[in-house]
């Protein structure tokens, strides 16, 4: 066997190992540029209908829904730590800013980085002011923030986007304020470093749900 044949064999074995770990579709997504592939968690606050709608839309993309139960600390006394030890690839939510900060800080050691943040400020007179911080293609703001279904449409849009790339962007929009809404909610999405995720798949596969 010459050097070229040896390298070709090594590349073939590496590809086979990835397919065994992920399945062909998931492997393409992890090593390509697609974010949502089913191994995710949607954190929601049961007090706020928009938070619930956002989580339900993410669960349609395969996310395991986990409630805050009015105390973000409870996440670490439930199933959440076990899920993080498995092949969880992303975490998303529409929560208060303090809950977002706690989750982001606690999952950082697991290799998660910020993909997207949206600020949805309800302190204006009858309106929500939406500010999105992101990378990649522009959002269809007119198609998302038209009525009370914005939380679902934003989650659906995020689930179809690729991983962050390009320059940082910011966009703003407005919609009507619902009857039940705190001062401000934050939408956010954290994605796991793909090499951290690949390392997790070398252990026997376990399902999140």
Average pLDDT reading: 76
Q: Helix and strand succession?
A: HHEHEHEHEEHHEEH
Tally of individual domains: 2
Strand order of the largest sheet: 2-1-3-7-4-5-6
Give me the Rg, rounded. 19 Å
Shape: globular
Could you list the spans in which at least 5 consecutive residues all have pLDDT below 50? 2-34, 201-209
Helix content estimate: 25-40%
What is the number of helices? 8
Strand content: 25-35%
For the sheet with most strands, the description reads: 7 strands, mixed
What oligomerization state is this entry in?
single chain
Question: How many β strands by DSSP?
Answer: 7
Q: How many angstroms does the end-to-end distance come to?
A: 46 Å
Structural class: alpha/beta
Characterize this entry briefly:
The chain is of the alpha/beta class and 209 residues long.
What does this structure look like?
This protein has 2 domains: 32 residues, no CATH class; 165 residues. The protein is 37% helix and 25% strand. α3 packs parallel to α7. The N terminus and C terminus are likely disordered.
Question: What attributes characterize this protein structure?
Answer:
single chain; about 210 residues; alpha/beta; 7-stranded mixed sheet; globular; disordered N terminus; disordered C terminus
Task: Give the helix/strand layout.
Blueprint: H1 3-22, H2 24-31, E1 40-44, H3 49-59, E2 63-67, H4 80-85, E3 90-95, H5 97-107, E4 112-121, E5 127-135, H6 141-144, H7 150-159, E6 168-176, E7 184-192, H8 194-200
Parallel strand pairs: 1-2, 1-3
Antiparallel strand pairs: 3-7, 4-5, 4-7, 5-6
């Amino acid at each position: 066997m010459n050097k070229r044949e040896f390298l070709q064999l090594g590349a073939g074995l590496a590809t086979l190992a990835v397919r065994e770990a992920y399945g062909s579709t998931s492997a393409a997504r992890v090593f390509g540029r697609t974010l949502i592939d089913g191994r995710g968690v949607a954190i929601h606050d049961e007090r706020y209908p928009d938070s619930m709608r956002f989580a339900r839309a993410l669960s349609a993309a395969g996310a395991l829904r986990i409630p805050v139960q009015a105390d973000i600390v409870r996440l670490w006394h439930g199933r959440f730590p076990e899920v993080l030890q498995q092949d969880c690839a992303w975490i998303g939510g529409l929560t208060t800013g303090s809950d977002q900060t706690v989750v982001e800080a606690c999952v950082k050691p697991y290799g998660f980085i910020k993909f997207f943040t949206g600020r949805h400020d309800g302190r204006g007179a009858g309106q929500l002011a939406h500010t999105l911080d992101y990378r990649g293609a522009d959002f269809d703001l007119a198609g998302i923030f038209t009525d009370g279904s914005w939380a679902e449409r934003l989650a659906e849009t995020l689930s179809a986007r690729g991983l962050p790339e390009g320059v940082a962007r910011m966009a703003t929009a407005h919609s009507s304020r619902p009857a039940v809404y705190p001062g401000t909610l934050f939408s956010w999405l954290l994605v796991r470093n793909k090499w951290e995720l690949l390392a997790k798949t070398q252990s026997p596969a376990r399902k999140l749900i």
